[in-house]
Amino acid sequence: MARVRSPRYGRKLDDFTVGAVYAHPWDVTVDEGMLALFAASFQDAIPTYASRVAARSLGLRDRPVNPLLLLNLGISFSVHDVSEQAIAHLAYIDVRFPDACYPGDTLRASSMVIGKKPVSTGDKGVVHVRTQVVNQEGLLVCSFERKALVPCGAAAERPADAPHAVAQPAEPPARLPKELDGPLPPAPSHGGFACFWDDFEVGDVITHEVGRTVGDSEHMQLATLLRNSHPLHLDEQYCRSSSFAKTRVVHGGLVLSWVLALSSRDTAGRAVWDLGLDDGAHPSGVLAGDTLFAASKVVAREEAGAGAGSLTLRIIGVKNTPPRALLAHGADLFTPELGKTDGRVKEKVVEITRTLLVRRRDQAPPR
């Protein structure tokens, strides 16, 4: 009689060992087609990621891969070993993009287990991992930590990990490529967006008025493009019994990217690089047909050398109700949902801190 096997991937709480490094099996070349599809869906306004001319004017050798695509690939690659059994993605922590990645680069990733802890109910726990994405030369292009809620116990029929010699460096990575670590060259003389570093003041709140409805086939196509294998995003039969929504839920990395893109015309059109993301969470899920909106609050701004400054924003995404309307009704949009005793915003689907390197207005060409 033929042997019947039913391999399962991801891990439950007992399968994680603190200090272990899991080398994820995906090995994917990022090509221009992937960049074009991502750009068409997200419309991020940062010129460095959209324009070869803008990127080369900064000293980069070509238009780099959008860092949000790198983050999505890193999360998705890690699902196979980390979170395919997970109940929920809980947090984004210390996301960095220390070097540029270019079309034609081949990416792989690994995750180190930083910690794990059962919750008081005893049936699940929180696992904390650091994931790093490198190219074919071992150059680190994305590093981030995340937390996931996973069931207790061990995953039945999980195949053994392939042998590997992957290690992760202990020192924190840089926040920007070496080509950008110095005075910025003059900005291009054509128009562009008007949001220079000088235009922002700490405490400013910006409600971004254009929404974005999530399509069913779109989120499925993007999840599979990224190699995200969690059945919560892909398998309607699984979701009818195992999803809180009883249907497929949109991958959180996509929700994050759409919200940041919705905010980008008003905040990032003069940015040249993402210095980092931190303190991120998904207070509630998104389904196909939901419409996303964004709002931003300026929490810090500092000079950052000749021609540039760093701008730190707290960015929130909500679904189906514009943030201006929520603010008008007294909603507490910018306080993190975790830990709130009252005033929870049920429409909030993502919250995160984003720090950008942004051109100063005094560097703009004269009119």
Please explain how this structure is put together.
This protein is α+β, with helices and mostly antiparallel strands. It folds into 2 domains: 7-30 and 65-155, Thiol Ester Dehydrase, Chain A; 182-367, Thiol Ester Dehydrase, Chain A. It contains 9 helices and 11 strands. Strands 1, 2, 3, 4, 5, 6, 7, 8, 9, 10 and 11 form an 11-stranded antiparallel beta sheet that branches. Strand 9 (291-303) and strand 10 (308-319) form a beta hairpin. The chain is globular and about 75 Å long. The N and C termini lie far apart (81 Å). The mean pLDDT is 93.
What's the overall geometry? globular
CATH topology assignment of the largest domain: Thiol Ester Dehydrase, Chain A
| Main sheet characteristics | 11 strands, antiparallel
The number of distinct helices, counting runs of at least 4 residues, comes to: 9
Number of strands: 11
Strand content: 25-35%
Mean pLDDT: 93
What is the CA-based Rg, rounded?
21 Å
Class by alpha and beta content? alpha+beta
How are helices and strands ordered from N to C? EEHHHHEEEEEHHHHEEEHE
Number of domains: 2
Key features of this structure:
single chain, 367 residues, alpha+beta, Thiol Ester Dehydrase, Chain A, 2 domains, eleven-stranded antiparallel β-sheet, 29% strand
Secondary structure layout:
Blueprint: E1 21-23, E2 28-29, H1 32-42, H2 47-50, H3 52-57, H4 67-83, E3 88-96, E4 106-118, E5 124-134, E6 140-151, E7 205-213, H5 216-225, H6 231-234, H7 236-242, H8 252-267, E8 271-281, E9 291-303, E10 308-319, H9 323-328, E11 348-359
Antiparallel strand pairs: 1-4, 2-4, 3-6, 3-8, 4-5, 5-6, 7-9, 8-11, 9-10, 10-11
